[in-house]
């Protein structure tokens, strides 16, 4: 049994200067490139709720100089745990909201998701919270009715 491949193998690669791509954009591109591709069969199904709703089937939205690391249900069943990473190296403020729902209460938590301090939801029903430069932030928002 031979371990040699019968045909010649060619490897191609390209090196380029990333000067035109900022660090934040490079981080985002790398994050999405590493995600496993998945097949969506929604095109072949009849559209049902919640995809026909005003929110369009979107669970949550996130804005600011951050990328999401984790969004999952809280262990006690009330709300979510959201962990984000700041990617621009400047720090700043992130905004999280749930289309079609309001955030009623929220807490900044530590890495073990223990509540540290309450956060005040903004008047539009979302949540704004600070993120340190190149830092991680974990928050626990609870929507109304949770």
Keyphrases for this structure?
146 residues, mainly beta, 5-stranded antiparallel β-sheet, extended
Overview of the structural elements:
The protein has 146 residues and is mainly beta. The protein has one domain: Immunoglobulin-like. 8% of the residues lie in helices and 34% in strands. It is built from one helix and eight strands, in the order H-E-E-E-E-E-E-E-E. It has one helix at 23-34, and strands at 61-63, 66-73, 80-86, 92-97, 103-109, 115-119, 127-131, 136-143. The strands form two sheets. A five-stranded antiparallel beta sheet has the order 2-3-8-5-6, with no helix packed on it. A hairpin with a 5-residue loop joins strand 5 (103-109) and strand 6. The model has no long low-confidence stretch (mean pLDDT 79).
Number of domains: 1
What's the CATH class label? Mainly Beta
Q: Encode the helix/strand succession as letters.
A: HEEEEEEEE
* CATH fold-type name: Immunoglobulin-like
Which of globular, elongated, flat, extended, rod-shaped describes the shape?
A: extended
| Strand arrangement across the biggest beta sheet | 2-3-8-5-6
Number of H- or I-type helical stretches: 1
Q: Distance between termini?
A: 63 Å
Care to count the β-strands?
8
What do the pLDDT scores average to? 79
| Cα Rg | 21 Å
Q: Helix amount, in percent?
A: under 10%
**Helical/strand content category:** mainly beta
* Proportion in β-strands: 25-35%
């Amino acid at each position: 049994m031979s371990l040699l491949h019968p045909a010649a193998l060619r490897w191609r690669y390209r090196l380029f200067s990333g000067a035109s791509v900022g660090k934040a954009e490079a981080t985002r591109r790398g994050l999405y490139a590493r995600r496993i591709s998945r097949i969506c069969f929604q095109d072949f199904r009849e559209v049902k709720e919640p995809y026909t709703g005003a929110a369009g089937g979107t669970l949550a939205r996130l804005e600011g100089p951050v990328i999401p690391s984790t969004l999952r249900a809280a262990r006690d069943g009330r709300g979510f745990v959201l962990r984000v990473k700041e990617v621009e190296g400047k720090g700043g403020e992130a905004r999280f909201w749930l289309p079609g729902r309001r955030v009623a209460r929220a807490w900044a938590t530590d890495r073990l998701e223990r509540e540290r301090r309450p956060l005040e939801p903004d008047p539009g029903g979302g949540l704004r919270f600070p993120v340190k430069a190149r830092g991680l932030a974990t928050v626990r928002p609870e929507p109304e009715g949770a």
